[in-house]
Write a structure and sequence with these properties.
The protein is an all-alpha fold. It is built from 5 helices and no strands. Helix 4 crosses helix 5. The N and C termini lie far apart (155 Å).
Length: 136
């Protein structure tokens, strides 16, 4: 029988087959390890995304509460601008002095409030302190 294969070819093919198998096994291990790392990374990103979502909801809640508080303050202090304008119209203490003189001459609280920019309570107080005394 004649041998068509050169001597040692079978052993070289066997060694090449073993090396190829080892390379394939090594490739599978590398891919498996890489796959585990990617899964861990994806889990970390999903966890971070969930935490960001919770923070966003919390900030939205704070924003809504702040907006409501701001609206409540606007309603509470809506008359402040008008009151400041009245105080600016009133000027200095000279307005009170003029209101006192007018009260001594018999002006009523409504006229004092209108003429000198006093609030109704201030006009009433000026009248009580400096207005003409009523004789019963």
């Amino acid at each position: 029988m004649s041998n068509l294969n050169p001597p040692g070819l079978n052993s070289m093919l066997g060694v090449a087959g073993v090396l190829l198998g080892l390379c394939a096994a090594l490739g599978i291990l590398v891919v498996s390890h890489s796959n585990r790392r990617w899964r861990a990374r994806c889990a970390a990103v999903e966890s971070s995304l969930a935490a960001l979502h919770r923070e966003f909801e919390l900030m939205t809640s704070f924003s809504l509460k702040t907006g409501r508080g701001f609206k409540r303050m606007e309603r509470t202090y809506a008359g402040v601008v008008e009151r400041v304008e009245l105080l600016e119209l009133r000027g200095s203490a000279q307005s009170f002095e003029l209101a006192i003189d007018s009260a001594r001459r018999g002006a009523d609280p409504g006229k004092l409030a209108q003429q000198f920019g006093l609030s109704r309570t201030e006009a009433d107080l000026v009248m009580r302190l400096h207005g003409r005394k009523k004789i019963a």
